[in-house]
Specification:
globular, 9 helices, mainly alpha
Length: about 210
């Protein structure tokens, strides 16, 4: 793997990571509450790691070879995003008086974050489309290992950006409950819209 390929991949990955989506909405919701930021980011990152591993070990090609399986994953992911989005929109997060670090709450944030990213077909398709493009033929590292290295770089960048998003939301909205509710509702609606668009795209593709 060449340094040029590594840096080129990183540049593309950063641009995509900086585009707001379901992951951003989830990190913002955690930031508004002022609790669970690190746990929510941990869940999001674990979701990315899951999808990266699936693609790197070759399971990604198997899934794309079976459209019905991929369609089922897409619908399940879209439904999950819409459910989470509706919950956030109906009960928008508000700044918490103090940080809640209980094991139950931590587990909930992690599982929720994992679901938002791992069940989002766009994350899977991102890795599937990008990683093979930056594999260097003839490298001492095999294609699978190269994709793992590139994927880990993307995941590390995600972690930095999502932590910044979460704590940025906390700093800006932590003392503004009314604004926090409005942004929370917008985040929830955004997640629902992403879910609807995924369903529409998949339905149109099957048609």
């Amino acid at each position: 793997m060449t340094t040029t390929a590594l840096m080129a991949f990183w540049a593309v990955a950063i641009l995509l990571i900086l585009t707001p989506g379901a992951d951003w909405a989830y990190a913002i919701a955690a930031g508004i509450r002022g609790r669970g930021i690190m746990m929510s980011v941990t869940g999001l990152v674990l979701g990315h790691l899951t999808m990266m591993t699936v693609v790197a070990i070759g399971a990604g090609a198997m899934l794309t070879a079976h459209p019905s399986t991929m369609a089922a994953i897409t619908y399940a992911g879209a439904f999950y995003l819409m459910v989470i989005g509706v919950k956030i929109a109906r009960h928008p997060p508000v700044p918490a008086a103090e940080d809640d670090t209980s094991e139950t709450t931590a587990g909930r944030w992690i599982v929720g974050g994992w679901g938002v990213s791992a069940l989002n077909p766009k994350v899977f398709l991102l890795f599937l489309a990008l990683l093979p493009q930056f594999v260097t033929p003839g490298s001492r590292l095999g294609p699978g290992m190269q994709m793992m290295v590139l994927g880990l770089l993307e995941v590390a960048t995600c972690m930095v950006v999502y932590i910044a998003v979460g704590y940025g939301a906390k700093a800006i909205l932590g003392s503004r409950p009314a604004a926090a509710r409005r942004i929370g509702r917008v985040s929830g609606v955004l997640m629902v819209m992403i879910g609807v668009m995924l369903v529409a795209h998949q339905t149109g593709h099957m048609g």
